[in-house]
Structures
1.
Amino acid sequence: MLKKRKPGRTIGEIQVGEKLVFQASIEDKDLLLYLGLTDDANPLYIQHDYASQTPLGRPVVPPIMLTGMITSAVSKYLPGPGSYITRQDIRFLRPVYHYETLEFWLEVTGVDEEGHCVTLAVTATRGTETVLDGTLSVCPPHALPRFDGRVLENF
């Protein structure tokens, strides 16, 4: 049975300048699970002998997997459960290799209460090197009406 999650923060509770920083490590088990779920057999992602002969020199992490780490942070933390990404523009500046640890930064750069949209800047670094950057447009969770005894009157 799935646990009910409390919705994240609503548009009125979010302010420009808020930040979220988190680290994520890329392990073989995560890569294999992703590749198995998506049926993605790109040799650049898992075949060391193939990747070693390319300019990248070794297997890389699929960019969409990095995007998944970002969307997970939006769903869990900023704005949180009930959020929905409506637009993303992410540039993958450097390849990310297996076993690396990245630091992700998300920052609220805009709040449009009328349009019910939050703009987030996103960056990921490996040490001092930026490996991706971009922006997201996110619809935070809507405030839901409170349930009372009348909610079930039609049943």
2.
Amino acid sequence: MDDQHGPAVLDIYRLGIASGNATFETEPPTWESFTATRMPEHRWVAVDRAGAVLGWIACSAVSDRCVYAGVVEHSVYVHPDAGGRGVGRGLLQALIASTERAGIWTIQSGVFPENTVSLHLHASCGFRTVGTRQRIGRQHGIWRDVTLIERRSPAVT
């Protein structure tokens, strides 16, 4: 993922926000803010043969404390028209491979429980449910739960 992908990445993010079940965010950030908060070596896009972006994945460090150096939080978004084509799985596999090469031992995320497609995708890629944070935040005035998921690398010990 690089600057040329920025408009498409943010558009897919905007579509995810509009779905109501992807994030607490109400607007995508600027491209500058997006790139400043995501690890450049662990950002990927899936593109079709014509170069159109079908989805993206990126992660951020969870803490600047050295004991958490091997833990990242990720987001993955697939364009609604590209669902069911293996885009999300391919992106997760790319992230898993790049983070393991870098010695990262845990990838985590928070997913709305209603986002069953994402929860099933993550489970099929080795993520487990850690628990549910009940009524952790409000979205449009409504309390929402978030399911915490993580994948502990079997390769990074």
3.
Amino acid sequence: MKIAAEVLIGVVAALHLYFLVLEMFLWTAPRTRAAFGTTEEFAKASKALAANQGLYNGFLVAGLVYGLIADSLAFKVFFLICVIVAGLYGAATASRRILLVQALPGALALAAVLLAR
């Protein structure tokens, strides 16, 4: 179960690294705009805000990776809870799709971590 938990944490970290790249570097690209359902004008106007969101995703990645490297239960649990809370908030305020893309993988990883204890 520990291996499954670590793989799931790796998947969650990889997703958030991908979100970082989209939000910090590719926000105004056509494929990113299509994925987020934004217009070119909105993407240009919100580029700094998106980069800020991307930076926060980077902090989640750093915490999850540190948790894996240090084999720290506390780091794994804390940062997975952060992922889940951010996913729930995003689903409530932006798009329900965020439940599937962010909160669900985080919840599955957290369940696996707790079961592996």
4.
Amino acid sequence: MNAQQDDILALGQVASALSATAMKFAGSADELFRYTSMPIESEGEVLERAEVMDYLTDLATHDNDIVLVFANSIADRIEEFEKQMDMPKVSVAERLRLLMDSKAVKQKDLKNVAPQSVISEILNGKRNVNLKQAKGLSTFFNLPVDYFVD
């Protein structure tokens, strides 16, 4: 067999796998290609495509199953949509308060970072975290320093 015949055989195998995927998919081949190639325009579409992506992932019988190519393409469309969404800005004070609440940390527990009165002012938005405090909080919570810098 020569290289051209190998390429034709490989292309035939891909076409066969694509056909089998379309047959397994509950929708039509047109739907499958739309889900994998068209941009997402709403949060409702994200949920719909995530459902299809999960369904396709469940169809996969091995790590190299062509079904996963479609599932990954849908994941790419979801990621593209999410990248264009504006994420709300969360202040350092809010992040610190959430961390403290989730870990049951009291202001006095942060005495090695700053006095309790300073921590209180930070939490109430009356004071910004300085670099020394950001480093102390970073060490205390085991998070990157930039988590505590606006």
